[in-house]
TrEMBL record:
Swiss-Prot/TrEMBL TPR repeat ranges: 4-37, 72-105, 143-176, 177-210, 211-244
Keyword Repeat included in the entry's annotation: yes
Record-linked InterPro entries: TPR-like_helical_dom_sf, TPR_2, TPR_rpt, Ycf3
SMART domains referenced in this protein's UniProt entry, alphabetically: TPR
Keyword field: Repeat, TPR repeat
Name used for this protein in its record: Tetratricopeptide repeat protein
């Protein structure tokens, strides 16, 4: 019925404005007229993603799938609910089903990458994250994708690739000192002390009172034979945080 679609549309409008009570009322009116509306049921799941219980989310997404198995958002939403419930295998199967319905679903790949990262399956996580970039390289998730790619490559011992993606994160957020810390750490592990020193110094310019960065830079300078600088940095690090070296 056309009025059911209209009520659903109003529910979506109120949901996007975070007017939860009004949104739910219109979705329920839509269901009174068309109880099997998969679009309305899915949108109720989306609404309860914001404010409801996990069981409410599961209920509406399951109802949406039973009504129409062609809506990819229902599988993704149900997968997220199971992920929040720590039921990773169920969540994984639902994200994969979502991708069967819509192979271009960015969020399903991103959510699968999260599960693979939890499972320490970094190779599969990389596959999913790189697929996200092929679908949309300009999303608001790009920074996080680059960061998680860097971390996955680091975990696999592929340090050059890790550095490549960390540099991409810095292009997006140049004032995030911890990114320079991370690159500095990787360069140290690779034996490139000069590059490590450079990035740690950049980190300190952004956050001059980071005891951890000062301590790391101090140890790098010891290895480089810069003992006076190392002494000053380690002394200041201990002043900021007496437990930083332990």
């Amino acid at each position: 019925p056309q009025s059911a679609y209209a009520y659903c549309g109003l529910g979506i409008i109120y949901s996007e404005q975070n007017m939860i009570k009004e949104s739910e009322q219109y979705f329920q009116k839509s269901l009174e007229l068309n109880p099997k509306s998969a679009v309305t049921l899915c949108n109720l799941g989306i609404l309860f993603d914001k404010c409801g219980t996990i069981d409410q989310r599961i209920f509406y997404y399951q109802q949406a799938i039973e009504s129409d198995r062609s809506i990819d958002q229902s599988y993704n939403g149900l997968g997220l609910a199971y992920l929040d419930k720590q039921m990773h295998e169920n969540a994984k199967q639902l994200f994969q089903k979502c991708l069967e319905v819509n192979p271009q679903n960015f969020n399903a790949y991103l959510n699968l990458a999260t599960i693979f990262r939890i499972e320490s399956n970094y190779q599969e996580s990389i596959v999913c994250l790189e697929r996200c970039l092929k679908i949309d390289r300009q999303s608001d998730k790009t920074f996080s994708i680059y960061y998680y790619l860097a971390d996955a490559y680091q975990q696999l011992g592929m340090m050059e690739d890790a550095i490549e993606y960390l540099k991409k994160t810095i292009e997006i957020e140049p004032q995030q000192y911890f990114l320079h810390d991370k690159i500095g750490y990787i360069y140290e592990k690779m034996g490139n002390l000069e590059e490590s020193q450079k990035h740690l110094e950049t980190s300190l310019k952004i956050n001059p009172e980071s005891a951890g960065t000062l301590a790391n830079l101090g140890f790098i300078n010891i290895k480089l034979g810069n003992y006076q600088e190392a002494y000053q940095q380690l002394e200041y690090a201990l002043k900021l945080d007496p437990g930083v070296l332990f």
